[in-house]
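Work Package 4 report. The design task specified in the project plan requires that, given a folded chain encoded as structure tokens, an amino acid be chosen for each position. We show below one input record used in the internal validation round.
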């Protein structure tokens, strides 16, 4: 059976517990991974310079548009602050209920990619465009339109909880990575034209939103897609490893072999006088021969 296919639906409570533990570990690790502010700013400026040299700094014109047009900026802030918390779990639940044979591989892919993102936050702390000096021309739309939502001036965290977030965890963009994961699964397992449309639109809109709100650079989005690609490649080996570990720890102990009354292999094979190779003889015939010999 292919690794991605399972005939049995996982227990919902074990899955919920597993996802909660992984997300808690990810959130805690993200906070611990806070790097030096100066290093994060240097990384952000290096990315910005590279994008300008390659004419890839799409976040600059998008941020101006979101800042100047509230009808675009305000909905985009709501999208950034909420959808990845809603759509990603919704896709997981949908797969669990409607595509249980594919759920395990999809969940493993998401978890591996998320943990890889944590490695990126640790190794490359990056200042997002919105936190750069104002001379670089970026406006924090989340702060500009904060009166319309539940967030404050510190990313998408609720007011007063900004200290519980790592604002320099910009590289890679898991907003984009998770949206791409959702899009791939909707495209692969959705059956209607609406599902196919959402599969393309959701990752695309998310990419535009994270840049327009000045929360990520374009290269952050590229890195988010790359992390998901690496996670997809690691999914098969990870599942195989998990199966081996489970098999080792759940294998039944070897018990002693008991003797069962059964015919002996080769029973009835006897060597007749003058034979070098035992021949199959009928035991009843041998008994008759013995009786006849005794009579003689």
């Amino acid at each position: 059976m292919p690794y991605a296919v399972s005939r049995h639906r996982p227990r919902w409570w074990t899955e919920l517990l597993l996802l909660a533990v992984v997300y808690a570990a990810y959130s805690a690790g993200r906070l611990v991974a806070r790097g030096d502010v100066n290093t994060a700013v240097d990384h952000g400026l290096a990315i910005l310079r590279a994008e300008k040299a390659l004419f890839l700094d799409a976040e600059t014109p998008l941020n101006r548009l979101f800042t100047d047009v509230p009808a675009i900026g305000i909905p985009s802030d709501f999208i950034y602050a909420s959808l990845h918390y809603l759509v990603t779990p919704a896709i997981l639940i949908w797969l669990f209920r409607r595509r249980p044979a594919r759920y395990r591989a999809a969940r493993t892919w998401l978890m591996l990619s998320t943990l890889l993102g944590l490695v990126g936050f640790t190794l490359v702390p990056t200042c997002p465009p919105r936190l750069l000096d104002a001379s670089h021309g970026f406006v924090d739309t989340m702060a500009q339109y904060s009166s319309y939502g539940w967030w404050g001036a510190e990313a998408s965290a609720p007011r007063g909880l900004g200290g519980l977030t790592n604002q320099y965890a910009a590289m890679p963009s898991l907003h984009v990575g998770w949206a791409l994961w959702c899009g791939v699964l909707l495209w692969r397992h959705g059956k209607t034209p609406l599902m196919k449309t959402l599969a393309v639109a959701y990752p695309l809109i998310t990419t535009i939103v994270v840049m327009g709100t000045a929360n990520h650079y374009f290269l952050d989005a590229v890195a988010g897609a790359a992390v998901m690609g690496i996670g997809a490649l690691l999914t098969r080996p990870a599942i195989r490893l998990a199966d081996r570990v489970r098999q080792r720890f759940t294998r039944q102990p070897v018990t002693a072999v008991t003797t069962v009354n059964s015919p002996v292999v080769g029973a009835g094979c006897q060597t007749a006088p003058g034979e070098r190779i035992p021949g199959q003889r009928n035991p009843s015939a041998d008994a008759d021969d013995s009786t006849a010999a005794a009579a003689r």
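DSSP finds ten helices and two strands in the chain. Validation will be extended to a larger panel in the next phase.
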